[in-house]
Amino acid sequence: MAAPVQNYVTVGPGQTVMMRFDQAKESSSTRMDPKTGIKSDVKTLVFHVTELNGQPISTIYSVLSQTLQKAFQPYIDGNTYPRYRFTITRGSGDWDAPRIAAAVPV
């Protein structure tokens, strides 16, 4: 089960978590890929997490995956994401990106 590491939620290979959010912001930065050493400009979608696996919490979930950012975009555009509990899952491979497995209205 994923847990906050420092002040962030991480979803590791083969993990599934449920989260609720009350804030979302986009940011851009230059990052270095730890495996390749290549620098690139990266857009990040940052959520404030208020619930993790049914438990209240105050932490951050950062989304680097462009595919996952696109999946969240309709909820952000409509400002409806606070009214959903999202189940996020990730395949078992190191390069598998997280995805929305379910978005359940609350």
If you had to describe this structure to a student in words, what would you say it looks like?
The chain is mostly beta strands. It has one domain (4-105). Helices cover 11% and strands 56% of the residues. The chain is built from one helix and seven strands, in the order E-E-E-E-E-H-E-E. It has a five-stranded antiparallel sheet with strand order 5-4-3-6-7. The longest helix is centred in the last third of the chain and has 12 residues, at 66-77. The protein is globular and about 40 Å long. The two termini are 22 Å apart.
Task: List the main descriptive attributes of the protein structure presented here.
two-stranded antiparallel sheet, mainly beta, single chain, 11% helix
Largest sheet: 5 strands, antiparallel
Assembly classification: single chain
Beta-strand percentage?
over 45%
Q: Record the strand order, biggest sheet.
A: 5-4-3-6-7
Please tally the helical runs, counting DSSP H or I stretches of 4 or more residues: 1
Class derived from helix and strand content: mainly beta
Radius of gyration: 14 Å
Total tally of structural domains:
1
| Unreliably modeled segments | none
What is the rounded distance between the termini? Answer: 22 Å
Compressed to H and E, one letter per element, the order equals EEEEEHEE
Helix content: 10-25%
Shape: globular
Mean pLDDT: 91
